[in-house]
Design a protein that fits this description.
- With 221 residues, the chain is an alpha+beta fold.
- It has two domains: 90 residues, Chromosomal Replication Initiator Protein Dnaa, Chain: A (Orthogonal Bundle); 104 residues, no CATH class.
- The protein is built from nine helices and six strands; from the N terminus they run ααααααβαββββααβ.
- Strand 2 and strand 3 form a beta hairpin.
- It is flat and about 60 Å long.
Length: 221
């Protein structure tokens, strides 16, 4: 049954998967108990997982709101996570290429790049190590990632860096991952043929905030 569910979701658009998250409460909460112990269908397990990754609530609170036990919620996430990751990996084994450039001042932009943070609890560790997790810009303890999103709709996260301490500057994140951007942004022969006469650049461009200005010597920013 889980394999059937895996194949079904393999062909669904990402937007549809996101919309499924909106069905969590109406579907799972209203599903009647089966016997003395309630069980979840594979579809319901997926919905529990989508609720978990889209919410900042604790697992206990999510389980309570869905009227299931915390053990059931944990089991659903444990079973669904590897399947969904495998599906996404097979579906997006390589980042999609930019489409035909749209007219406008940013027609050559392929990636939108910025750093993002994920808050963590105040660590109970040595002060010097603790400082490494503190992000002075957002004034919180966190882990930081750099995300490169496609510039065309629907905007997909094509590259996500490894997590680093919140105190690491955005530029250092960029420097650690710039090589993969350079490789991706190089236009293929077919893409060069599709480019307009006014756009004869050999690579696509990146758009970032002012913190990235002057930091892409090999990339048009």
């Amino acid at each position: 049954m889980m394999e059937k569910t895996q194949n079904e979701y393999l062909h669904l658009p990402i937007n549809t998967l996101i919309q499924l998250g909106n069905l969590v409460r109406s579907r799972i909460v209203q599903t009647p108990k089966r016997g003395p112990h309630r069980t979840l269908t594979p579809h319901d397990q997926l919905l529990v997982y989508l609720e978990w990754i889209s919410s900042s609530d604790t697992l206990k609170k999510i389980a309570s709101s869905l009227k299931i036990t915390e053990t059931m919620a944990c089991q659903a996430i444990t079973e669904v996570r590897p399947i969904l990751l495998d599906v996404l990996e097979r579906r997006f084994s390589s980042p999609p290429r930019p489409p035909l450039p749209a007219p406008g001042p940013f027609s050559n932009v392929a990636l939108l790049v910025d750093a993002t943070t994920v808050k963590v609890a105040t660590p109970v560790i040595d002060y010097e190590d603790k400082k490494k997790l503190f992000d002075g810009h957002h004034y919180c303890y966190c882990m930081k990632f750099e995300v490169a999103v496609s510039s065309w709709f629907p905007h997909k996260a094509l590259f996500v860096s490894d997590a680093v301490e919140g105190g690491v500057h955005d530029i250092e994140l960029y420097q650690n991952g710039v090589e993969r951007y350079v490789k991706y942004l190089k236009k293929t022969p077919e893409e060069l043929l599709r480019s307009s006469e006014q756009d004869e650049k050999g690579s696509w461009s990146i758009m970032g905030d002012r913190g990235y200005q002057g930091q892409f010597p090999d990339i048009d920013l």
